[in-house]
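Job type: complex structure
Entries:
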Amino acid sequence: MIELSNVAKAFGARQILRDISFTVSAGEVACLIGPSGSGKSTILRTINGLESHDAGRITVDGTLLSDKTLPAIRRKVSMVFQRFNLFPHRTVIENIIEGPVHVLREDAETARARAIELLQRVGLADRADAYPGQLSGGQQQRVGIARALAMQPQAILFDEPTSALDPERVGEVLAVIRELAEDGMTMVVVTHEIAFAREVADRALFIDEGVIVENGPARDVLTAPSTERARLFLERVLHH
Amino acid sequence: MSEFLTDAVAFLPVLARGLWTTVLLTLCALAVSLALGLVWALMGMSHHAPLRWTNKLVINTVRGIPIIVQLFCVYFVLPDWGIDFPPFLAGVIGLGIAYSVYQAENLRGGFESVDRQLIEAGTALGMSRGMITRRIVMPLGLRTALPSFGNTTVMLLKDSSIASTITVAELTRSGQLLAISTFKNGTVYVLIALLYLAASIPLAMAVRALEKKAAWR
């Protein structure tokens, strides 16, 4: 479904990613973990072209990412952001139908009907006409997920979806993501929630200094990592 | 004092007609300046370098020439090339062009203040650059630009008095003619000052109301 081979990227003289290669198959949930500044968010952002890459190949559903195929790839892959990034001048439902109506050119009625279904799914059907500023962080992020789902993507990228939330709001967002995993959605999740990753992820990748240090079944990587670096990181995160 | 009041009552009808022209001139020039300003602002943010250069050239040229000289150019110089505008229209065009560069800077400031992450959200949804500009950057940026937009409009109202020099019978010119014919300089100019003030206060209030209306949540 998503395949990166030998992807590299530098910001000026600083090498951010080196030789990143991994595959996420359809229906798989892959978690990217690692210290901040390790490049895990950058990896995620190269997949839908929010960041360009200097070398290597990225393919999504058999399509090689290039300037030409970027629009097609963005239709296949949705994204959920750390800081939600909802459009503050549009209501919840307008946020959700923005992409379907203006990018996919669906008629507004169809898009609205699906948006309401999605809002029910994330438990916010009664807030359809609220503005993002009137919602809690957890609610905003659930709208962010509904907005991503409204594009009927084949995969969703999550960029630290719970890092900007109050601790008591994290659970409601993770619950929605967990449900998506159960429904077989292909997902790549950058997260610091190790317990959640253990429970939901099929695959875990430990990234450090722009390199994939470990890549394997989540159970193995997150409970019994084979490298010292990953072991130390997990220890630090879990005792926090 | 009572003489001032009787004079005021006698002068007000003439000055009121001048004030009406001033308001009309301001509103028309405002529309022109906003339309042109939007064009300059979008050019300034373009990805095409020649458009950005043109924008810089226009802004620096227009900003560097006194408004009164710009009005003279439109009213006295253009007729040499066979382009002959009546005074009011020349005033609208001259003030509109002169103010378009300030509006452009206001708008650009607003557009550039829009959170980059929202633009990313649009990009990730697959929106084109034009769509992002129309649907995210402009509505959010205009709201941020509103307060400075209000200031500029009040300045435009006052600078519309410069059109008196190209024979537009707006408030200042009506007053000048009245003062010359009656020798009541004090009464006339105090009245003019009060009338400008009276026009600018509702203007500021209208912008404030617009700001409130544009606020969400």
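Summary: The interface with chain A takes residues 115, 117-118, 120-127, 131, 135-136, 139-140, 143, 216-217 of chain B (CB under 8 Å). The mean pLDDT of chain B is 91.
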